[in-house]
Amino acid sequence: MFQRSLLLLFSLLVLVMAAPTRRAWPSGSVTCGSNTYSLSAVKSAVSRGFSLIDDPIGSNSYPHTYNNYEGLKLWCSGESAYNEFPILKSGLYNGGSPGADRVVFSDNDVYCAVVTHTGASGDDFVSCAGD
Q1: CATH number, domain with residue 70
Q2: Is 42 a catalytic site residue?
Q3: Is 12 among the domain residues?
Q4: Identified catalytic residue from 48, 50, 103, 117
Q5: How many domains would you assign to the chain?
Q6: Rounded to 10 degrees, what is the CA torsion of 114, 119, 123, 126?
Q7: Residue 70 annotated to the active site
Q8: Annotated catalytic residue within 35, 64, 109, 129
Q9: pLDDT of 101-125, one tens digit each?
Q10: Is residue 5 part of a domain?
Q11: What global pTM score does this model have?
């Protein structure tokens, strides 16, 4: 009986550890270069980007695939297809200049990161502080 209970407990533990975990949103504001974004602004940008996934906007067609060539830490364990969408100090992106900062989210609408071109080489990204 004890062995059976132990086996069941071990099996459940393996399942829990293998399941992808959703990372919570940032605990506060996020700073990209000289721009600071509230948690509300990050959530709004992710929501707007996800709502446009099948109907991209702007000359660069946002949201579009984020490849993470830089190998940055993404907070969306278990996800595999990523998108980037501009986050702006002036409000939600509706086309035009995307600026340097982006939110990254999965095709499943899971938050992954806030990244920026500010301080990076060429067209690369770096993680924003507080993410």
Answers
A1: 3.10.450.30
A2: no
A3: no
A4: 117
A5: 1
A6: -30
A7: no
A8: 64
A9: 999 999 999 999 999 999 999 999 9
A10: no
A11: 0.82
